[in-house]
């Protein structure tokens, strides 16, 4: 992509950047960091250039979903995935690296039996995307509060025994990460710029707080897994749309987080 094309893309607006209401408390053992500020209509600048034909979705679609918008904090772990920092202090992720990691993750997960893949979603905005992802791929959803002992306590009657787990945010899903590490199963994590990799085996760099961003990431991952399994042709899409994956929020919930 030429320099002129990059500059033209820098002025694209970022739409649908709904930040999840803080209705659900984070685990006490995690650090407190500043959430992504995703104001509707915010102008995005300098998202990394990438030829559209090499991406799983058009670049404009990824940018409008805000998968590249991080937080005002960054960790050393996430530094390789960060493209730049905006004038307002938000760190911007490299969409090409996100795309690459979705492909790698799909290949990895396609080796497992569907029912041996668990997906944890403590954050409200991750509930619907994870539910749809599991419906389409056959994975096991762990939605809402992760019950201590669910992976690690042999005496717990509802204990599950997956062979791999996906977490929508290693901070919000800290209990799931802790127990998966204890029992020795691989952990795939959606990580924003403020996340650390402690206990995580495979990272997908993305906005893991935005409603639309989570829908796009789980939609893409589901589609790519089914393609890797041979259950979906390379030129076919999922029977469900990205909108079907998106968390449904009432006006009251939006106005009273």
Q: What this model shows, in words?
A:
There is one protein chain. The chain has 257 residues and is of the alpha/beta class. It has one domain: Rossmann fold (3-Layer(aba) Sandwich), CATH 3.40.50. It is built from eight helices and seven strands; from the N terminus they run H-H-E-E-H-E-H-E-E-H-E-E-H-H-H. The strands form two sheets. A five-stranded parallel beta sheet has the order 4-3-5-6-7. A two-stranded antiparallel sheet has the order 1-2. Strand 5, helix 5 and strand 6 form a beta-alpha-beta unit.
Topology summary:
Blueprint: H1 3-10, H2 59-65, E1 82-85, E2 91-93, H3 95-109, E3 117-121, H4 124-137, E4 140-143, E5 164-167, H5 174-183, E6 187-191, E7 202-205, H6 211-229, H7 242-245, H8 251-255
Parallel strand pairs: 3-4, 3-5, 5-6, 6-7
Antiparallel strand pairs: 1-2
Helix pairs in contact: 3-6, 4-6
């Amino acid at each position: 992509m030429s320099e002129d094309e990059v500059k033209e893309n820098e002025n694209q607006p970022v739409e649908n950047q709904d930040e999840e209401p803080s209705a659900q408390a984070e685990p006490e053992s995690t650090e407190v960091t500043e959430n992504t500020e995703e104001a509707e209509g915010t102008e995005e600048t300098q998202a990394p250039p990438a030829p559209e034909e090499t991406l799983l979705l058009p670049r404009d679609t990824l940018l409008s979903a805000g998968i590249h918008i991080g937080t005002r904090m960054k960790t050393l772990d996430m530094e390789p995935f960060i493209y730049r920092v905006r004038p307002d202090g938000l760190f911007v992720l490299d969409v090409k690296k996100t795309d690459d990691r979705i492909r790698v993750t799909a290949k990895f997960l396609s080796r497992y039996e569907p029912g041996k893949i668990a997906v944890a979603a403590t954050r409200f905005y991750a509930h619907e995307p994870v539910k749809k992802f599991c419906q389409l791929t056959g994975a096991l959803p762990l939605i809402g509060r992760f019950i201590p002992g669910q992976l690690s306590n042999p005496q717990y009657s509802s204990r599950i025994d997956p062979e791999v787990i996906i977490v929508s945010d290693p901070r919000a899903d800290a209990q799931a990460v802790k127990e998966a590490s204890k029992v020795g199963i691989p952990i795939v994590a959606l990580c924003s710029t403020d996340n650390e990799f402690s206990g995580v085996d495979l990272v997908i760099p993305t906005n893991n707080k935005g409603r639309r961003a989570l829908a796009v990431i789980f939609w893409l991952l589901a589609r790519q897994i089914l393609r890797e399994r041979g259950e979906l042709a390379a030129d076919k899409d999922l029977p469900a749309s990205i909108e079907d994956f998106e968390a449904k929020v009432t006006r009251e919930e939006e106005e009273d987080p």
